[in-house]
Structure formats: C-alpha cells, structure tokens
Amino acid sequence: MVVTEDPTDQCADLDALHEKFAVNGFEALKLYQRENGRAHRYELESWYTCEGTGWVPSRVTPETEPYTYTWLVRRAIQFVKGIRTTDGELETMTLSAIQNGDNTVFTLENTGDIVCLPNLQAFESGDGDIVTRWFDGDDEDITDTITGDEGWVFTDMLEPGQTTTVRMEFSGPVDTADKTVRLEAFWNPQDPTGIVRARSVQQL
Questions:
Q1: Domain check: are 73 and 97 in the same one?
Q2: CA within 20 to 30 Å of 85's CA: 3, 134, 144, 203, which one?
C-alpha cells in the first residue's frame, strides 16, 4: 500500500503543503486499514517538487515536529503497531465491566496517545448450559463475530480518551453451573505485536 498525497496545489504556502502531505497521507493509511485490513507493507513515498520551494516534504526531521516526514512515519508505526515510542513502549487500553442482572456491559477506553482501530475477542470455558449473546453499542448482535477467530472490530476509529461498549447477555442455570468468560482487546484487527492490551474475566 503506497500512501501518496499530492499536495502541489499548496505550493504557494510551504507550511500548508507539508501539513497536507502528512495529514492526508496518515488518513489514507487509516482508511486502507479500516476497509481492507493491514497491508503487508506500507510505503510512505510522496516527494513532489514545487517551483521555487524545492522537494516536498523537505522537512524530514525531527519526528517531534508536526508534518515532517519522520513525524508521519512515527504516527504510522504508532497506529499500525500500537507502539508509543522507539524503545518499544506499548500504547494502552483499559477494559472495565459492570454486571447488572443477566447483562454485563464492557467499556473499552483508548488510553494511548494516538487513534486506534480496536479489536475485541471473547473466549468462554466451562458449562455449556449457560448461553451468552453479545451486542455492540447499537444493540446489534455480534456474537458470531466477537467469539470467532478474527474477533469483532469497532469500525470507527477510537481517538485517545474515547470509549466504546459491548454488552454480554447470558441465560441458563447460573446457580448450579460454572462458566468463565474472558474478553480481550487488541490495538487493531491484525495487531502485529499479538499482545493483549486489556483483559476482563467474568465468572458466571
């Protein structure tokens, strides 16, 4: 997947040109991942020449300065891999649960510092007489997806500090049976680290 943005219509304003390249290139990467899954490789290759300004993006470093080339690369790595810094520190999520009768509401929060595309997977063990159903925030049944091999993807991006919820409804002989439900959150659907970012275990 080549992330390409032609910003040459901004040649009269070098700052606007760099911003358009970096911001729209990152948006293209997020759109591709949401609609097609993660590519085997992303290539951030977008150099253009504007009369009187030279090659753009000409601001390669530092990565901490907005709209430089390395700023874009770092954001791409953070989004795809969920890695906060170059030393491997992970972006984080939190997962909490509130049970009310035969319903449990799980709230997932992006506690990292960049947008993510969260993936949730549910695992069950124990007595099969207790039946669970799963629902998203719009009350759509997602049971087959969230308990499947690929898990359920929150198709809208989750910005830092934002939350999303899923609800589990269970029925059966809870007084005499024993069942464990484990919900795990990943940074994105094809998290290359394979590391669970948050986990909640419920005993029914």
A1: no
A2: 3
pLDDT reported for residue 173: 72
pLDDT tens, residue by residue, 49-86: 777 666 767 788 888 899 988 899 889 989 988 998 77
Tell me, yes or no, whether 69 and 140 share the same domain.
no
Rounded to 5 degrees, φ, ψ at 22 are -70, -50
Give CA torsion, residues 161, 192, 185, 66, to 10 deg: 0
pTM for the structure as a whole: 0.84
Same domain, 54 and 122: no
pLDDT for the residue numbered 46: 67
CB 96, CB 106: distance < 8 Å:
yes
**What mean pLDDT comes out for the span 167-189?**
86
| Domain limits for position 62 | 8-81
Phi and psi, residue 108, nearest 5° = -105, 130
Q: What is the rounded distance in angstroms from the CA atom of residue 140 to the CA atom of residue 180?
A: 23
Residue 36 in contact with residue 157, Cβ under 8 Å?
A: no
Give the domain CATH number at 181.
Answer: 2.60.40
